[in-house]
Amino acid sequence: MKTKVSLSLVIGAALVGCFLLMLVVSFFYTPFAVNEMRSAERFLPPGRPYLLGTDNFGRDIFSRIMKGTQTAFFVGTLSVLFGMALGISLGALGGYFGGWTDRILTQLGTTIQAFPGVLFALMIVAVWGPGTFNTIVALSITAFPGFMRITRSGFIQIKEYSFVEAAQTIGVSPLKIMLRHILPNLLPSLLVAASNGFAGALLAEAGLSYLGLGVQPPEPSWGRMLNEAQGYLLRAPWYSLAPGIVLVLAVLGFNLLSDGLRDLLDPKQ
Amino acid sequence: MASKALNMQERNQVLLEVKDLYKLFPIQRGVLRSTVGHVRAVDGVSFQVKNGETLGLVGESGCGKTTTGRCIIRLEPPTKGEIIFNKDGQPVRIDQRTIKSLRRDMQIIFQDPFSSLNPRMTVERIIAEPLITHGMKNKTAIKDRVVALLEAVGLSAEHLRRFPHEFSGGQRQRIGIARALALNPKLVICDEPVSALDVSVQAQVINLLQDLQEQFGLTYLFIAHDLSVVYHICNRVAVMYLGRIVEITEVDELYANPKHPYTEALFSAIPIPDPDYQLEQIILEGDVPSPSDPPPGCNFHPRCRYAEAICRQEQPVLAPVKSNKDHQVACHFAEQLVLRGLNVRG
Across-strand partners of B86? Predict the structure, then answer.
């Protein structure tokens, strides 16, 4: 076996693993009730019993970060899934059949990608209004051209292979050829893109929530916490540092994971 | 598996007839992708394949032999011309509609054994796919059939669960052959089936193809550029040059008595494993002309050492020579020229 497990894969997987653990635990247990306010215990520095300190309402920051993992992963997972589903279907269509469909779809994708992702999401949320659902829709729309591009180029490449032509001469239907013969051969690169896209979705969700356009209070969100904390940057630096560092670690984790997966799954190595 | 050797009557029937087949690929340029010309990949090809025979289609790269095969099995839609398949005595014109009912009867073996098998499927799934696609449902029956096919191509049931990357090129080609035979086809288009293999493995695969032909009454359209392989397996041979057939006849007649200067030049390029054998090599000057802009007159005249004025003006038609009605040549001087064939021993 010549499996090459790179350092980035190990670190990325470990970070992502920690967040997944935190996510699961947060459903059953947080050290303190997430929205419980204690006016006597505002701005307590990290220590005991508040691991990462308390905020301007005396809420436990660590508990809110744990609960924020749910929001981040909920938005991230759904927007990557929707974006992937849309991107793969459209990319497969354009790549397999070519022609005018392909040209129109490619132009659509390029147009969307011409806008910076967050800016485009911002525009959508501005039109449809803030909220978790609209955030997911906005992020799915910004995410799908990337998946579409990967799927399309993969389909164009693989449909020329003799095994696809063999399936055609056997009489296998185009849908089955796409699903059974071509798509499975693209899964590695799609997996890498999904991991990468998840990091982008986390960042974009935090960005939108920071601007007050994403997840609405009192639901805890890392971006929202950063927004609330900025007024107390000097008085309680831990309040903004904690969600900031958590966000950095999460994005870093998924990016490293995707880099590591790319090296691992690249057949050229 | 039951053997299906053909009787004499079946042998004389025409299984496939190609009539005046053209395949032009448009050359598109510019933003508006306007068509500025055509590559004439197949330029008016006609031939017949009889039941149970092997017709060789030879020529250098880019002469349109593979495209001809791909048009027959409809991997490419032909630009013009008719392809007629004899389905149980009933001639069927192959088009987008009828091809569905002919899928069972026509299969193809590909050149590259490394891209012809899906790397993510087991051998069992690869060979079972045609069976399942054509309505076989019983799982044990499918498996039995797959094992029988594997054994017919010299592999065994222990290979069922393996993936293509675990096999050598020759073994992969055997798997491709088993897949092509799964539906009991009548015609198999062999698109350079051995040219990607080592020489020692080539012989094994060629022998396998011959055994299978005998056993299942197959008809082959054998596309190749290796003339020794063609001599070994084919009954008749068609020589193609720049999208046209220049000569077609029985294999022994062609090799002993070529009538087209291009065929002669091809033969002179075959290495003979005999140090005392003196054969003047005919080196063809220049490159193959562009198939998007073929020369006027005979396509071959710019490289032909016998070319005269008429060759530059008039395009010769494929016609039988006087001495042998089964020997067709497209050359103005087919009757006059005395060309050197191959002294094929053994």
Answer: B91
Residue A143 falls inside a structural domain: yes
Please tell me the distance from the alpha carbon of residue B85 to that of residue B219, in angstroms, as a whole number.
12
Dihedral over alpha carbons A151, A156, A160, A163 (to 10 degrees): 10
Does the residue A248 lie in any domain? yes
DSSP B104-115: TTEEEE-S-TTT
Q: Are A167 and B125 in contact (CB under 8 A)?
A: no
Domain of A171? 7-265
Given an 8 Å threshold on Cβ–Cβ distance, is A185 in contact with B106?
no
Q: Specify the length of chain A in residues.
A: 269
B257 within 8 A of B250, measured Cβ to Cβ: no
Q: Which of A102, A163, A173 to mutate to test the interface with B (most CBs of B within 10 A)?
A: A163
Least confident among A193-197, B199-203, B238-242, B290-294: B290-294
Number of domains in chain A: 1
Report if residue A2 sits inside a domain.
no
Give the three-state DSSP class for B53.
coil
List pLDDT tens digits, range A67-104: 889 989 999 999 999 999 999 999 999 999 988 999 99
A165, A171, A185 ranked by CB distance to B133: nearest: A171
pLDDT band at A215 (very low <50, low <70, confident <90, very high): confident
ipTM of the complex: 0.87
CATH code, domain with A143: 1.10.3720.10
Please tell me the distance from the alpha carbon of residue B129 to that of residue B182, in angstroms, as a whole number: 9
User: Which pair of structure tokens corresponds to residue A251?
Assistant: 């994005």
Partnered with residue B108 across adjacent β-strands are B189
Instruction: Identify whether A1 is part of a domain.
Output: no
CA gap B240, B255 in Å, rounded: 15
A100 to chain B, closest Cα gap in Å: 12
What was the pLDDT predicted at B5?
66
Here the tokens at position B292 are: 């998007």
Helices A187-210, A117-128: crossing angle, 10 deg rounding:
60
